Amino acid sequence: MPLRPPEFLQSALAPPAAILGGGISGAGVQGLLTAIGAEGVIYDAQAAKGGDFTAAAARRHALVIFSPGFPPEHPWLQRARAAGALCFGELDFASLFWRGRLVAVTGTNGKTTLTEFLTHALGAIGRNAQATGNIGHPFSRLVVEKRGGARDMTAVCEVSSFQAETLQHLRAHATLWTNFAEDHLERHPGLESYFGAKWQLVARTDAGAVFAGSSVCRQAAKFERSTHGVHQVETEGRPADPRLARTLFATYPQRENFLLAAAWWRESGFDEAALYAAAQSFKPGPHRLARVAVREGVTYWNDSKATNFHAVEAALASFEAPVVLIAGGKSKGGDLAGFVHRIASRLKHAVLIGETSAELAFHCSMFRVAHTRCADFPEAVRRATELAQAGDHVLLSPGFASFDMFRSYEDRGEQFEALVQNLGAPAANFR
Residue 118 and residue 137: Cα distance in Å, rounded? Predict the structure, then answer.
């Protein structure tokens, strides 16, 4: 079946649409526009082509589609609105063309793993499910690949706060919200704003189909948000489940993901035994507390996907003894003093990198945490190796964004693994 725009969009698509952001979201939008027989012009301040979205440029477009990197108050979006253009986030725009079901997954941590696990579990029982969204596979790209999706197809869509805050048209058949903790305060002016951005999904989900973890429900009460009709799932402090032994979900923090999945699974009428079987065969994606190597009795762990405080604390809780932690990166705001205070007793030594290293070093001194600042990443891995003794763990769990030193958290994790594998070899340039 061909992809057709809704009637209200047809006149706005007569001139070329403006695409703000030339990354993977922008490429997905460009592909979707082509698929519906429309044209798009990419504007990207970082690209060799595209350039600035000026007021004059804004007047040439009736439709503007923007990547999640553009906050609602961005000057380019202000110009677009002033020129009378319709403005949609990439995820919202793509949803207008999707004919299948949509299960949204959000949370401060765990949402990528939960998205992958639900997709895996649904596939294991013969359901047609595809992972999409913030997981790295834009919804617009999936829409084109599946020609809008069959009615029996489920898009399991990871949704970030950046994507949720501007939603206007997306409707979710269900939403699973894993947890809530401090994050993205470089974008949102406070915790309530961050929570409110994600709450947009609750408002855009079918009645009685929101499943929220314990920390989400506590925060909703604090911010006086009604959870009437929300499935409040007890995800914290639950005893071990022997059926999850030897799976990713045997211990926290991943057990929280399984409990959310199980609540939705039961409500959907699926066989519970099939979900436990899927847990046994599920393999998580890379860069999530993955053991890299054991060298001279020291175990090295890649948790590069830990880009906020909550994720680091969860990783550290997995170890019985203090670890040598490699942390730091591009600031996302938040209470650094509180973060260091909470993890101090779990650290043997903190090896600090990136633009936050100086501030982290200050707080380490305040809380008497042994620490070393390193000028680059190879130095950090070498220094961590020197500090570790047989039986110790060296953990890369940065707690911050990667973009001050790396292309992405994946790039950071891959460089870490390469450096660990080459310990003892002549120094290579990984910058």
Answer: 16
Q: Each residue's pLDDT tens digit in the chain (431 positions)?
A: 689 999 999 999 999 999 999 999 999 999 999 999 999 999 998 765 567 899 999 999 999 999 999 999 999 999 999 999 999 999 999 999 999 999 999 999 899 999 999 999 999 999 999 999 999 899 999 999 999 988 999 999 999 999 999 999 999 999 999 999 888 878 888 999 999 999 999 999 999 999 999 999 999 999 999 999 999 999 999 999 999 999 999 988 899 999 999 999 999 999 999 999 999 999 988 898 999 999 999 999 999 999 999 899 989 998 999 999 999 999 988 899 999 999 999 999 999 999 999 999 999 999 999 999 999 999 999 999 999 999 999 999 999 999 999 999 999 999 999 999 999 754 444 44
Which CATH code is given to the segment(s) 290-421? 3.90.190.20
Q: How far is CA 323 from CA 21, 310, 326, 362, in A?
A: 40, 17, 10, 20
Structural domain spans, the chain: 12-92, 97-281, 290-421
DSSP 8-state secondary structure symbol assigned to residue 110: S
Our CA angle for 235, 241, 245, nearest 5°, is 120
CB distance 328 to 395 below 8 Å: no
CATH number of the 12-92 domain:
3.40.50.720
Cα 208 from Cα 151, distance rounded (Å): 21
Indicate the residue type of 64: V
Strand partners for 293: 300
Q: Exposure of 240 by Cβ count < 10 A (0-12 exposed, 13-18 middle, 19+ buried)?
A: exposed
Rounded to 5 degrees, what angle do the CA atoms 375, 305, 237 make?
125
- Please provide the DSSP assignment of 284-350 as one string: PPSSSSEEEEEETTEEEEE-TT--SHHHHHHHHTT-SS-EEEEE--B---S-HHHHHHHHGGGEEEE
pTM for the complete prediction? 0.85
Question: Looking at the domain 97-281, which fold is it?
Answer: UDP-N-acetylmuramoyl-L-alanine:D-glutamate ligase (3.40.1190)
